[in-house]
Write a structure and sequence with these properties.
The chain is an alpha/beta fold and about 400 residues long. The protein has helices at about 35-40, 50-60, 70-85, 95-115, 135-140, 145, 165-170, 195-205, 275-290, 295-315, 340-350, 370-390, and strands at about 20, 25, 30-35, 90-95, 120-125, 155-160, 175-180, 185, 190, 210-215, 240, 250-255, 320-325, 330-335, 350, 355, 360-365. It has 2 domains: about 20-50 and about 295-390, Aspartate Aminotransferase, domain 1 (Alpha-Beta Complex); about 50-290, Aspartate Aminotransferase, domain 2 (3-Layer(aba) Sandwich). Helix content is about 40%, strand content about 20%. Strands 4-12-11-10-7-5-6 form a 7-stranded mixed beta sheet, with helices on both faces. A 4-stranded mixed beta sheet has the order 1-2-3-15. Bound molecules: pyridoxal-5'-phosphate. Pyridoxal-5'-phosphate binds near residues 129 and 243.
Length: about 400
C-alpha cells in the first residue's frame, strides 16, 4: 500500500500495465474484461488506434497555449457539438465537477443579469451526484458527500427523486433552475422516465426557470443517443458533459442555449487548461466516431443482448440478483448479496464492474465492446454469481 498518496480512495489491489479495447492487462499479462471502462470514460475502449493517432499527432504539433489565444481544435469541437445538439454555445472544462460548477454559476448569473438576483435556488434530487467540489457536494446534499465539510454553499433545494408534485410545490419566486441527471449513475442507475423529463421541461417553461441536465455519465452515446435527454424529445437549457467525451483524456464541457448562457460574458469565467489542443483533438475524434446513427444504433443493439442475458441470470440466481436497471450501455444490477462482494468476487473471475449506491453493480462497458465480449462478460458474471452462491 502506497502511503504517500492521500488515502481517499478504496482501491482494489489491482494494477494494470496496458489496455486493448475492452481488456486490461496486468504486468504478468493477466487479462481482465473491463465492464467499467474507467467509470464510463473509455467510451471507445483502451488504446483505440484512432484516438491514439489523434492524440499523438496533436502531441507532435502543440500541447497547450491557454485560452489567451484562439484554439482551432476547440472551435471545431464546439461546432461539432452545436451542429448536432440543442446547444448554441460550449465552454470546455477538464472534468465533470468543473462542468457542474459552471452550470451553477451560469444559472445564477442568468438571473442576476435579468435583475432577478433573488432567484438563486436550484432544485436537485436525492441520490444525485454532481462532483466533489463545494458546489457539487452542496448540490447533491447527501450526508455521505457533505459530512464534515460545512458550511455548505447555500442555494440548493433537495427533493425526492422523480416526484412531480413535490417539485411543482417547491417552485417559488426564488427558484432559478432544476438540475437533474437523466439517469443517476452514482445513485444506482436510476432512470428518469422520458415522460418525467418532459414533465420537468413543461414545468420549467410554465414557471420560466432553467432546466440543466447533468449528462456527465449518461451522455456521449452511452444510452444509444448522443445525449440521454434526446430520448424524451426535450431540449434542456444547459447540459454538463465529461467522462466519455475525452475517451480517457481529461475533458469536459458545458453546453448551453444562447439565452441561458447570456450572463457569461468576457471575463466572467475561465480555465487555464480547459479545451486545450490535446484534449480537443481527442474529443473531436470521439465525437466523429460516436455521433453517427450506425454507431449509436449498435449501442442499442448491444444493450438488448446484454439485458436479455442479464434477465436470464436473474432467473437463474434470484438469491444473488434482484433487478436490472438502466438503458443502453449504462446498466445496473441491483444485488441481493452486498454489491461490493459481487464486484470483489468479479476480480477473481477477471471481470471489472463498478459499484454504485443502492446496492447496485454498474456495467458501463466501452461502447464498441464486441458481441463476443458481451457473451464473455455474461459468462463471467454468471461464474461470479455461482461462486457467491457456493460461498453462502
Ligand atoms: C462523474 C460525475 C461527475 C463528476 O465528474 P468528475 O470528472 O469526476 O469531476 C458529475 N456528475 C455526474 C453525473 C458524474 O457521473
Amino acid at each position: 500500500m502506497n502511503t504517500s498518496i492521500l488515502p481517499t480512495y478504496n482501491r482494489a489491489p489491482l494494477a494494470f500495465e496496458r489496455g486493448e479495447g475492452s481488456w486490461l492487462f496486468t504486468k504478468n499479462g493477466d487479462g481482465y474484461l473491463d465492464m467499467g471502462a474507467g467509470i464510463a470514460v473509455n467510451a471507445l475502449g483502451h488504446s483505440n488506434s484512432e484516438l491514439v493517432e489523434a492524440l499523438t499527432s496533436q502531441a507532435n504539433k502543440l500541447w497547450h497555449v491557454s485560452n489567451l489565444y484562439e484554439i482551432p481544435e476547440q472551435q471545431r469541437l464546439a461546432e461539432l457539438m452545436v451542429d448536432t445538439t440543442f446547444a448554441d454555445n460550449v465552454f470546455f472544462t477538464n472534468s465533470g465537477t468543473e462542468s457542474c460548477e459552471l452550470a451553477v454559476k451560469m444559472v445564477r448569473k442568468f438571473w442576476h443579469e435579468k435583475g432577478q438576483g433573488e432567484r438563486v435556488e436550484i432544485i436537485t434530487f436525492d441520490g444525485s451526484f454532481h462532483g466533489r467540489s463545494s458546489a457539487g457536494i452542496a448540490a447533491a446534499g447527501s450526508e455521505k458527500l457533505t459530512k464534515g465539510f460545512g458550511p455548505m454553499l447555500p442555494g440548493f433545494v433537495h427533493l425526492p427523486w422523480s416526484n412531480h408534485d413535490a417539485i411543482e410545490a417547491a417552485i417559488n419566486e426564488k427558484t432559478a433552475a432544476i438540475l437533474i441527471e437523466p439517469i443517476q449513475g452514482e445513485g444506482g442507475i436510476r432512470l428518469l422516465p422520458d415522460q418525467c423529463l418532459k414533465g420537468l421541461r413543461d414545468l420549467c417553461d410554465k414557471h420560466d426557470i432553467l432546466l440543466a441536465v447533468d449528462e456527465v455519465q449518461c451522455g456521449i452515446g452511452r444510452t444509444g443517443r448522443l445525449f440521454a435527454h434526446e430520448w424524451s424529445g426535450i431540449e434542456p437549457d444547459i447540459a454538463m458533459v465529461a467522462k466519455g467525451i475525452g475517451g480517457g483524456f481529461p475533458l469536459g464541457a458545458v453546453l448551453a442555449k444562447t439565452r441561458a448562457a447570456s450572463g457569461m460574458t468576457a471575463g466572467t469565467h475561465g480555465s487555464t487548461y480547459g479545451g486545450n489542443p490535446l484534449a480537443c483533438s481527442v474529443g473531436i475524434k470521439v465525437l466523429e466516431i460516436v455521433n453517427t446513427p450506425e454507431f449509436l444504433n449498435s449501442v442499442t443493439k448491444k444493450s438488448g443482448l446484454i439485458t436479455q442475458g442479464l434477465l436470464g441470470l436473474i432467473d437463474k440466481y434470484p438469491d444473488i440478483f434482484e433487478e436490472i436497471r438502466g438503458t443502453g450501455l449504462m446498466l445496473g444490477i441491483k444485488c441481493k448479496c452486498p454489491n461490493l462482494d459481487f464486484v470483489q468476487e468479479g476480480y477473481e473471475k477477471a471481470i471489472l464492474t463498478v459499484p454504485a449506491s443502492d446496492n447496485v453493480v454498474r456495467l458501463l462497458p466501452a461502447l464498441n465492446i464486441t458481441i463476443e465480449e458481451i457473451n464473455e462478460a455474461l459468462s463471467r458474471l454468471e461464474q461470479t454469481a455461482n461462486s457467491l452462491r457456493i460461498a453462502k
